[in-house]
Amino acid sequence: MKIISSIAELHDQLRGQLRTAFVPTMGNLHDGHLSLMRLARKHGDPVVASIFVNRLQFGPNEDFEKYPRTFAADVEKLEKEGVYVLFAPTEKDIYPEPQEFRIQPPNDLGNILEGHFRPGFFTGVTTIVMKLFSCVQPRVAVFGKKDYQQLMMVRNMARQFALPTEIIAAETYRAKDGLALSSRNGYLSETERTEAPSLFRELNRVADAIRGGDLDVSLLEKSAIDQLTQRGWQPDYFAIRKRIDLQPPTAGDLATQEPLVILAAAKLGSTRLIDNLEV
Ligand code: PAF
What we know:
3-stranded antiparallel β-sheet
């Protein structure tokens, strides 16, 4: 595997490649990331991964400084997956001057759910993804469904800017007890790790209720928030939304069985976890 930090060198290395499959990451790779690499391989060749902890998408009180950086272990894992190039730029490579041009996500998708609780997050994500796409120029790029709103945002951005990159969605990779794998799981204490799967259990409980015909969306959301709070979580949101645009379903949508997704974000101690489940 070639490890490249400079954009010019990356362009040299990938010149003439028409089927590049790209997986952007912030490192601290776990089995979830590795499943993205394997999906990328099915959709293109060569596979290019990136590791870059993108300061732009972290709020001032978030975990940019303490975000786990495990470069040597990450390299070993990517080598085993047969990744061809690891693009691992420094901040100077990516932002040699202040990034004044930025992507402005649409308000209806950008300011709800994650966007509401993490102002500026999606501007940071879409700006770096656009920049990484112009560095790698992939034919396909793989994003996990765990970050459901991010996936939708990137997909809409690629469509609206007519980018030549197809966005591929990967299913969420879970531990045996249901917890969605995430680099932030490493922040959990042993007791918190035991409690953490109850977020997914709550998503399943509400999904089962909907499938069973309970369509009182506000009551279902409230009951989930109450349950989690009682168990010691501090929920940011637990929201039943339409899959198509992440807006709340109307009575008409519910009557016509519009496809739904339940999205949740909650803090356990000082660790913020997100998860979702399609219904
Ligand atoms: O999902 C992530 O790891 C990041 O948001 C991404 C897409 C690599 C952009 O920094």
